[in-house]
Each structure stands twice: as structure tokens, then as C-alpha cells.
Batch of 2 targets.
Target 1
Amino acid sequence: MVESGSILELHSQCGISETMLAKTFVPRHLLDSRCFSSVNSKILKVGDVLREARVFSSEDVKGYAEVSHDWNPLHFDQESARKAGFENRLVHGMLVSSMFPRIISAHFPGAVYVSQTLHFRSPVYIGDDILGIVQATTLRETKNKYIVKFSTKCIKNHSELVVLDGEATAILPNLEMLQPSHLE
Amino acid sequence: MVESGSILELHSQCGISETMLAKTFVPRHLLDSRCFSSVNSKILKVGDVLREARVFSSEDVKGYAEVSHDWNPLHFDQESARKAGFENRLVHGMLVSSMFPRIISAHFPGAVYVSQTLHFRSPVYIGDDILGIVQATTLRETKNKYIVKFSTKCIKNHSELVVLDGEATAILPNLEMLQPSHLE
């Protein structure tokens, strides 16, 4: 576990409401990262950890298949999943991976993804409680932007079991982090 | 360009109909990779290339944001995209990346993703014509399954411009490829 530095948590339950987003398409406060007060802002430093929990539902898996066109039977047919050695239907690995850019861009609107490595180490089943953990490991300023490397991993069901890990690099427009209270 | 070996192409236009999938949830022929005739089957070998073209629409980007919760303004607000140095609204990099497991699992239902590296080299804009290219580079049999490494890349608008590349590893249940005619 890499939990030094400050820890910021987002939960789907208490974060951005999907209904709200669907209505407004994208809220104004996501379009302007400077609209939060300095009292609540925090400057990212190496070691800081950002986290978000999520449970992927059957509807999430279907929604992801509709947009990705990835209808691998492992995600839809229990018998196919069992034949392949799994206990149940799997969540698409790339859907789980989407937690990393989501966590980064929720704190740094306008972040540009440069790279991501992904190792799918253990199955994620529909209904598993997944915690995405993103930690800044290196930070470099260039032309008023910031190139930040993050270690990225997901653990499941409140255990130490890493289901997915890797590394991401993103270009951040600034180092001021949006705080969870601003996402509610 | 890596186009040696046989080339199989899928096009969204002539591939699986989303409407059909939405109605049946997942077609029977995707649940049983043995239901195609040996006349039309082909055994994967090192060097074989699988390809699929796709144009990501504004609705695709919104659909992906709804399922991933990634509402980065670069994907929704032209002004934010321009401020960040882009010509227009970007398609989520991880949505473009979803082409790789989609291409692999469309040919090998039951494929299990092991790893993926991703380098986002150039922006993908809504409306760009993206060609996903997946080539088998190494192949190893183990316990009646096959561990296959693929080089993976996307080029855009019929140019040589690589917008995204990397490498994927997948475990395939067998080496018999579904052919496009079986996906129509």
C-alpha cells in the first residue's frame, strides 16, 4: 500500500451526481478549475494519494459494451466465464482502468493523458467493491504545465488484493487540486 | 505500418449491429466460438494483423463519460480544449484504447486480457476516422490455452499518423479466428 502524503477520497455515492451531469451535460465548475476558493485548494506534491471507490454494476458493464463494442461473452455469460476459470461474469478490464484518468481529471480538470501501463492481475467481478488509488511519484514543470507520473492501482473488497496496477503520466494545467467538497 | 501476414478487417458499418446486440443482449454465436464452419476459420499465427475502423461521435464521448464518470472538460468544452492547445474536443484516450480488446475479443470470444501499454501520441478528435491495428508478435501454448502478445496501434484519417500505440497480452482459449462474415 502506498498511502503516504495526503489522501483525498471521492466516492461515487457522494461525488458528482450522474443525474445532475446528464441534465447539465457538464457542470460549470468542471469547466473552470479556478472557481474554488484557495482555502480549500491544495497543491499536489510527490507522495500525494488520490482515491476513489466504485462498484461496477451489470448496467455499467452493458453500458461500456455499448460504447466500446466489446461484447466478449466473459462479461455477459456466466457459463463462458466459468469455462474460462472465473467465478462469475467479469467487468471489462479497460472499464476498471477508466478509474485512473477519472480520478486524475476529477482533481485536475483539463489534465491530458500521455501514457498508461496496465497489468490485469486478478479478476474484477460485477458487484466487487473496487478502490482506485493514484499516487504522484514524479513531478516536473515545463512551459507553465506540469508533467506528473502516477503509480496507479486498484484493490478490491477492502483487502490488499491488487486487481490492476501500472503507471500513468499526465500533463496537468496546474497543481491545484479540486477537493471532494467542490465535486458535490 | 505492420501489415504482413493475413489481414482481417471489421468495420463498425458492416460488423455487429448495435441495435441487434441491444435486442439480444449478446448473440448466441458470440457465446460459442465453435459454431462457425472450418471452411471459414483461420488459425492465428505470428505476423497476422487484425484491423477495425471506427469514427467516434459526440454521443460516443458522452456515453463513455456516463459509464466511466470521466467528465474532463477537454472532451466537452471546445474552449477548454483550445486552451490546452488542441484544435477541438478530444475523444477520451481510454475510449480509443478500447478498440484493442474489442478487436481481439471479436475474433477470439473468451479472450482474457492480461496487460496493455498505451502511449497517447497525438490527439483524437470527435469525427476522426480511426483505424485500430493489432498484430500478433509472439505466441506460446500453455495448458491448452495460448498466451499471445500483440502490438497495438491506432492511426487516423488514412494517414501514417500514429495517435496511440503500445502492446497487449491476452490469453486466448483457442487460435481459431472468427471471420468478419460470421459477425454480420
Target 2
Amino acid sequence: MILTFIGTAGSGKTTLTAKFGQYLEKEGHNVAYINLDTGVKSLPYTPHVDVREMITVEQLMKSGLGPNGAIVKSYDILTPHAKEYANEISKLEEEFDYVLIDTPGQMESFLFHDFGSNLMENLREPLVVYLFDPNILKNLYDYCFVRFFALMIDLRLSATTIPALNKIDIIKNELEYYKKYLDNLEYLSSRLRLDPSTQGYLAYKLCSFLPDVISSVRLLYLSAISGAGFEELETVAYEHYCTCGDLT
Amino acid sequence: MILTFIGTAGSGKTTLTAKFGQYLEKEGHNVAYINLDTGVKSLPYTPHVDVREMITVEQLMKSGLGPNGAIVKSYDILTPHAKEYANEISKLEEEFDYVLIDTPGQMESFLFHDFGSNLMENLREPLVVYLFDPNILKNLYDYCFVRFFALMIDLRLSATTIPALNKIDIIKNELEYYKKYLDNLEYLSSRLRLDPSTQGYLAYKLCSFLPDVISSVRLLYLSAISGAGFEELETVAYEHYCTCGDLT
């Protein structure tokens, strides 16, 4: 089973990859780790595949590029090898119970760059977990935004994508508040309907449309610190690979 | 009038800011330039506001951070000053005909970080131009993706967002092919409908829904090299600020 963690820089992909891997190992599974981040300095797991063996952002910056240019260039260099990486990952999938893919630090290096789409299209039914941080949920529009963003990833990478609120340890008692809006789209829509602004109307329309396209994907609530949601993540992965994608 | 250029690293924001600014100046307008990229090494315009005066990615990397961490940290440092920057930009708007905002190299530093939303919510009716590269349009789903992505920016930043295919000089004779799918959502939908895959169905549903929410926003086709689309961009900005957002 291949699990791909996608999210913006700082959303906790690398820590979660390590901690969820440790959890799976304790459960008796064998786990392979893939690092696709050319910019990461050190990893809390030992990768079986590491793109930094081919190129790092640091090397490119030493040759004179700025950080943005170096990040883009590193994936330009990796792109012709995307299929080889996909083959390596597919081979590991045969040997290991789980293959955990830790994607580029900057989400756009994966989502908007050929490297990401070329790699993903060469994997068999990849499952994506889209990690977002409680900090980006400031107003009701943002709840609609993250639900839709998971769809955008699905559309771009042709991969079933499960949205996951990560770092729930930092919100503690407010989790139920977040869940109320994230799990219950009808409730979110009804609240957005009361917003008279142009933005409120857009969010309302988008949110009301969502059930037409995402009825079968549930949300996850995760914490790498407490291990919350790990069991459910394991179940979701199992169901995706073993019962053909019914994630209701 | 404030124009904000948003797009992934390498989508041509900085070059377009410079070239469109030169065009406006030749037309007799006075133009202010804002650089919000903490990672850029050199600029092809002289900025009136430059976030690098407060912090740069390079400084943070010297203190030991990796490129991703340094990019995030630089915007963490800028966030408490987002409102001051918005005030500075608003003052420039009174003095200058046009204020062109060149946003962070990595789009997610603006779209997913408080810095971006805090800054934008303190500007009066900001207009956003979402730049995407012909290279990301590989299959029909991608056409649907970019149209929807502009909506995501609109939703997240509460700002009218116009999608713009940039670098049209590199596609030359194929421009009509791109336009056929980007301009005519009905045609795109009818093609997607023939796709029997799960992905095709998702793209078809999303694409068919689009006219419900974006009927009034047209697309731009730009080139910083040839100056194509500059006149139309100027018109769109004028219409946004002077006729209250009717961009049909």
C-alpha cells in the first residue's frame, strides 16, 4: 500500500511520515520510506529512496541560484527520472506492507510541476493524504477552501485524496468546533448562506456543490505527537487498497 | 489601481511585473512596484516597497535553516507587519496610477500563509491576476484545474481573480488550441464527458459547475516578451476599479 503525504511547507508531512511509520512498525508491518524533498536538511526516518542522492537545493544554490529558482531547478532535474522513481516505489510496494511517500517541502513543486504528475501517474491507484494545518482555518470560507483543495489535488494528480486536519494536538478542546464545519457540509453551507458578501456567496455556492462530487470521502484528524487518527488512517489505507476505494 | 500577480515559482510573475510596468509607464502612467518575495536575488524593477529590507531567505539559511523552513520563517516574521505593508501600498495607490504587487516566489507562501491573507484583507478591492504556464496544461483535466484554481485564490484571498495564461510566446501557433479549451467551458465539458474514468467524471462535474460561479470573469493571454495581452490587462484593471468589477 502506498500512502502519499501532501501539504504546504510546515504542514507536518515529514514528522507524520516518521511517526506514522513507527506506529505501523509497532503494529508488526514493514514500512518503506520515500523522501521526495530536495530541500530537507535532515530526516527523522531512514529513506529507502531519497531524491537528494541525485540533487539538492543546497547544491544548486551554491552554483548561484536563489532559493525559489533552485527548488524549481531541482525538480526540473528530477523530472526525466520520475518514471524510474515510480518503478522503484512500485517494487518496494511488493516487498513492504506500506510505502510512505514524503513529498516536496513546497507543495507546488509536486502539484504544479511535471515531476509530481509524472511520478503519480506511474503508480498504481496511489492514495494521497492532504495535510492542512488548523492555522489556515481562520474563517468559514477557509473550511470550504480546504475541502475543495483536496479535490484540486485529486483532479491534478488523478489520485484519491483524503483531506486531513493535522496537528490536532495544538487545538485541543476546540476540535469539536473544527469538526462541526469540516464534517458537516450541510451545516457549513447553511452558515455561509447567511453571509451577504460576494465572497460569502461564492463560498456558499462552492460548498453546496461539494456533496455532488465528494460524497464518499471522509476526513481525518491527525496528530504526530499524540498518534491521534493513526488507526483510522491505517483503516482508510486498507479500505482504499483492499475494497477498491470505498471510503465512506 | 492595485494589481497583484500570483503564480507558482517560475510562472513569470517578476518578469511580467517589470514588463507590464514599463508598458504602463510608456503609456504615460506612473507606476509603483512592490516586491513581496523574500527569496528573490535581483529584481528587474526598482521596488517602492521591498520585504527583503526586513528579512531574506538567505539570511535565515545562514542561521542554519533549510530552504523550505527559511521561506516559511521569513513570512512568519513578516506576518505581524502585514497591515503596515497594506497601509504603505494603499498610500502608494493614492500617489500612483498603478501599484503592481509581485508576490512570493512560492505561491503557497502567499495563498496558505497568514501573511498573504492578512495583507490582502487590508487592501481595498484588490485585483489578482493568477498566472499559469502553458507547461502545466498537459491533459483536459488540467484546463479544468487552472480555471478552478483561480476560484480557489478568490475564495482564499477574498479578491477578484483573473486567470491568465502566461508565456504565450512559447506556444506560438498552438494558442488557438489552448483558447478553445480555456475560453469555451461548454466545449471542454462536452469533451470531458466522453472520458469514462473516475477522473474524467470528476473533471466533467467540476467543469460543468464552473459557469454557475465564474460567468463574469474572462481569461487573459499574456507574454512579457511580446507584450501580448498588456492592453487587455490594462482594460481589465480599469474596468475592475472604475466600473465595479464587471469583467464580462
